[in-house]
């Protein structure tokens, strides 16, 4: 066997949390320094001034990660939210440094962590193609050569000289993906770019990526929450759990292991400290809970059980209008529905959004919930993916049918029957 | 794909890294495109467009020559006050714009930095370069106005690009420092406008420092790297009488280069963590 194209050895990435990230202004830094100096002079009180060191200061997003990728492999990297997938891609794309270990790569690398990176709304489609192509690593000559192809793939001929801020979101994404799809690296690193766009567009993207993979033995690393896409596209897979590789091998094996593992109910996620909570500087997730309204004697939720989803957020705004958008996904990562709350004004504090899912709506299956915090009804602030998982059991009464009910949902709808005529005339 | 070696190893970075100018050279196309983008964007959605590149220096020139030349009656060694001021405004405005643009450039490109790899240094460089067009426009105005005021073209006028470089260096040096510091300490956002505002008073844009400054302060005054650039410009435009004070000139270039060099080292050291901090 040839030497691997990508060889990851003992890779680790450590983020510092708590006190050390607090020094965002010079003043913080100066007061910290002053305090350290003061501490030198008054040793007796040193124990009491050490409060800030109690918070956890290190977080290993990746630890002892090792795997090899052979030329021509299409490798899916899967794992729950926070398992370290994005960090791994960032290291492989050279965006951030590993804390320990090393990666060896043989071949020209292009990474696609987002479609439309560097697109500028004021520039025209034509200008953005050149800019975005250069950002992704194409030479001007390459872009000129492929320009017509890109425009054709994106279906935007008529709007080439219109600023992209006037594009519909569909056109924007198509153009952005078209540029990326015409990269010709030996190693392509792709993050969840398929999460954007409609179903038809996603199919087109997967088709294009399959073409890329099959021709000339390109190597692709692909991260996705969508297990269907991973199974379609990849030959191999790596499963990350809490920053470590727990399984690696053929795609079916690893995906099945993952699906099996994640089928366990995880009805609650709690983050007691602002410092550890996922989110941005302004809004973080405090808790997300799935609360089935169980009737007396019942132990687990069924398809008939109404369910309450409660989401608590820490907010840190002077003033902002927030609403919560909730995605209910099946275990394969397909979205069953998306529902959005009304917008509410918040400032500093904790707020709670509650969503009520009626009984007799969902099928017996395992579901995951993602929540997206949105500002001013249009600006997505933070997307917390697959935060909780729950399973609904089957419950039937007076039914003779015992097979699995087909369909993504299983609503209990009103029916009416009328006997129009009792006997044939 | 020109930017990635066929084989490479990613490791934790330790100690001083080389400046890796070869890599910077490989990304020259992206550098040019980013500068071109900044120029395009600057004048989009403005009514007057590129006319601003003409209006800004001309209006400032008029105001300064009225206040300092007519009202305060500062000495101009026989040169027309408008030209005296405009020759100084060129390097000053180039410096001030380049400094403001570049110090904010990394933070403004946060999204790019967290999604794509390229040598981060090209962001502040392209921000400085995007001001070159404005500077060229202003220079052509100067060349057009010179005959109107009866100022002859001197042979040393050909050295003008060299003195643009003298104005470019401190802008670039400060831009490298401030853009990198700005990633971690947003205080820079307040420091830079302050420097630009105060700088206009301690830089001899509207006056001749030679006629106002006691000789014992001369060396200290030349710590301001713009003094050399402005003196150079006036010398090129107005002739021998305005020859710079060379010892101070060389000193300020030496200081600028050392600030630039330490800035580059600092930048290379922290650039690997930009994506984590920004």
This entry's quaternary arrangement is: heterodimer
Low-confidence stretches of chain B: 1-5
Largest inter-chain contact set: A-B, 51 and 37 residues
Main structural class of chain B: mainly alpha
- Spans where pLDDT lies below 50 across 5 or more residues of chain A: 19-23, 44-54
Q: Which class of secondary structure composition applies to the elements of chain A?
A: alpha+beta
Largest sheet of chain B: none
What radius of gyration of chain B results from the CA coordinates?
Answer: 20 Å
Approximately how much beta-strand content do the residues of chain A carry?
25-35%
Compute the number of helices of chain A: 8
What series of H and E elements makes up the topology of chain B?
EHHHHHHHHHHHHHH
CATH architecture of the largest domain in chain A: 3-Layer(aba) Sandwich
Q: Using only CA atoms, what is the Rg of chain A?
A: 25 Å
Span of the ends, CA to CA of chain B: 27 Å
- What's the end-to-end separation of chain A, in Å? 82 Å
> Main sheet of chain A, how many strands, which sense, barrel?
7 strands, antiparallel
Q: Could you say which overall geometry of chain B the principal axes of the C-alpha atoms support? A: globular
Q: State the shape of chain A.
A: globular
Write the layout of secondary structure elements.
The complex is a heterodimer of chains A (425) and B (278).
Chain A (H helix, E strand, L loop, with lengths): L5 E11 L9 H16 L16 E12 L4 E5 L6 H8 L7 E7 L2 E4 L12 H12 L3 H15 L14 H13 L5 E4 L8 H16 L4 E5 L3 H7 L2 E6 L2 E7 H12 L5 E3 L12 E10 L14 E24 L4 E6 L3 E14 L8 E10 L3 E13 L34
Chain B lengths: L6 E4 L10 H6 L1 H15 L8 H21 L9 H28 L1 H4 L8 H8 L2 H17 L11 H25 L3 H15 L6 H4 L5 H4 L3 H14 L7 H25 L3 H4 L1
Can you give a write-up of this model?
The complex is a heterodimer of chains A (425) and B (278). By secondary structure, chain A is α+β, with helices and mostly antiparallel strands. Chain A contains eight helices and 16 strands. In chain A, the strands form three sheets. In chain A, strands 10, 11, 12, 13, 14, 15 and 16 form a seven-stranded antiparallel beta sheet that branches. Chain A has a six-stranded mixed beta sheet with strand order 5-6-7-3-8-9, sandwiched between helices. A three-stranded antiparallel beta sheet of chain A has the order 2-1-4, covered by helices on one side. In chain A, a hairpin with a 4-residue loop joins strand 12 (307-330) and strand 13 (335-340). In chain A, helix 3 crosses helix 5 (169-181). Chain A is globular, with a radius of gyration of 25 Å. Chain B is globular and about 65 Å long. In chain B, helix 4 (81-108) packs across helix 12 and helix 8 packs antiparallel against helix 12. Chain B has 278 residues and is mainly alpha-helical. In chain B, 43% of the residues are buried. Chains A and B meet through helix 1, helix 2, strand 4, strand 5 and helix 3 of A and strand 1, helix 2 and helix 5 of B. Strand 4 of chain A pairs antiparallel with strand 1 (7-10) of chain B, so a sheet runs across the interface.
């Amino acid at each position: 066997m040839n030497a691997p194209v990508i060889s990851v050895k003992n890779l680790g990435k450590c983020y510092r949390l708590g006190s050390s990230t607090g020094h965002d202004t010079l003043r913080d830094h100066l007061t910290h320094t002053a305090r350290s100096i003061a501490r030198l002079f008054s040793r007796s009180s040193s124990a009491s001034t050490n409060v800030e060191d109690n918070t956890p200061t290190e977080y290993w997003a990746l630890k002892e990660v090792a795997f090899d990728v052979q030329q021509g492999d299409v490798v899916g990297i899967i794992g729950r939210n926070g398992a370290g997938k994005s960090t791994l891609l960032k290291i492989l794309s050279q965006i951030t440094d590993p804390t320990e270990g090393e990666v060896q790569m043989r071949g020209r690398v292009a990474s696609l962590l987002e479609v439309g990176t560097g697109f500028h709304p004021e520039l025209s489609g034509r200008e953005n193609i050149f800019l975005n192509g250069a950002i992704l690593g194409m030479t001007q000559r390459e872009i000129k050569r492929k320009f017509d192809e890109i425009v054709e793939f994106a279906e935007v001929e008529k709007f080439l000289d219109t600023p992209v801020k006037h594009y519909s979101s569909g056109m924007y994404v198509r153009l952005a993906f078209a540029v990326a799809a015409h990269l010709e690296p030996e190693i392509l690193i792709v993050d969840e770019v398929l999460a954007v766009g409609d179903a038809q567009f996603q199919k087109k993207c997967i088709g294009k990526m399959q073409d890329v993979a099959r021709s000339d033995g390109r190597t692709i690393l692909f991260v996705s929450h969508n297990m269907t896409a991973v199974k379609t596209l990849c030959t191999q897979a790596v499963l990350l759990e809490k920053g470590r590789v727990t399984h690696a091998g053929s795609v079916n094996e690893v995906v099945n292991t993952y699906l099996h593992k994640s089928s366990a109910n995880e009805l609650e996620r709690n983050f007691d400290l602002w410092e550890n909570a996922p989110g941005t500087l302004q809004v973080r997730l405090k808790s997300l809970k799935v609360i089935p309204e169980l009737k007396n004697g019942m132990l687990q939720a069924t398809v008939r059980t109404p369910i309450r989803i409660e989401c608590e957020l820490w907010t840190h705004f002077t003033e902002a209008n927030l609403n919560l958008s909730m995605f209910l996904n099946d275990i394969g990562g397909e979205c069953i529905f998306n529902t959005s709350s009304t917008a509410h004004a918040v400032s500093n504090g904790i707020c709670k959004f509650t969503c009520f899912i009626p009984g007799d709506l969902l099928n017996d299956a395992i579901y995951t919930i993602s929540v997206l915090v949105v500002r001013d009804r249009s600006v997505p602030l933070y997307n917390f993916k697959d935060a909780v998982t729950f399973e609904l059991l089957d419950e039937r009464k007076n039914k003779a049918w015992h097979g699995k009910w087909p369909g993504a949902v299983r609503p209990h709808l009103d029916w009416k029957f009328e006997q129009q005529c009792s006997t044939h005339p | 794909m020109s930017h990635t070696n066929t084989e490479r190893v990613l490791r934790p970075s330790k100690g001083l890294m080389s400046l890796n100018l070869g890599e910077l050279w490989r990304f020259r196309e992206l550098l040019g495109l980013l500068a071109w983008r900044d120029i395009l964007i600057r004048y989009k959605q403005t009514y007057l467009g590129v006319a601003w590149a003409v209006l800004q220096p001309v209006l400032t020139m008029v105001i300064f020559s009225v206040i300092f030349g007519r009202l305060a009656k500062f000495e101009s060694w026989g040169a027309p006050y408008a030209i005296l001021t405009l020759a100084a405004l060129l390097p000053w405005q180039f410096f001030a714009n380049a400094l403001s643009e570049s110090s904010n450039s990394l933070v403004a490109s946060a999204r790019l930095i967290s999604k794509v790899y390229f040598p981060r240094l090209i962001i502040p460089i392209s921000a400085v370069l995007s001001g070159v067009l404005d500077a060229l426009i202003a220079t052509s105005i100067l060349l057009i106005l010179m005959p109107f005021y009866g100022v002859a073209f001197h042979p040393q006028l050909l050295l003008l690009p060299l003195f643009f470089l003298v104005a470019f260096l401190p802008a670039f040096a400060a831009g490298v420092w401030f853009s990198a510091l700005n990633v971690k300490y947003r205080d820079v956002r307040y420091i830079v406008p302050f420097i630009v505002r105060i700088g206009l008073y301690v830089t001899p844009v509207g006056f001749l420092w030679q006629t106002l400054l006691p000789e014992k302060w001369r060396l200290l005054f030349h710590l301001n790297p713009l003094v050399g650039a402005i003196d150079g410009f006036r010398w090129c435009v107005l002739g021998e009488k305005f020859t710079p004070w060379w010892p101070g000139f060389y000193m300020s270039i030496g200081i600028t280069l050392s600030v630039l060099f330490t800035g580059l080292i600092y930048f290379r050291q922290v650039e690997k963590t930009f994506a984590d901090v920004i």
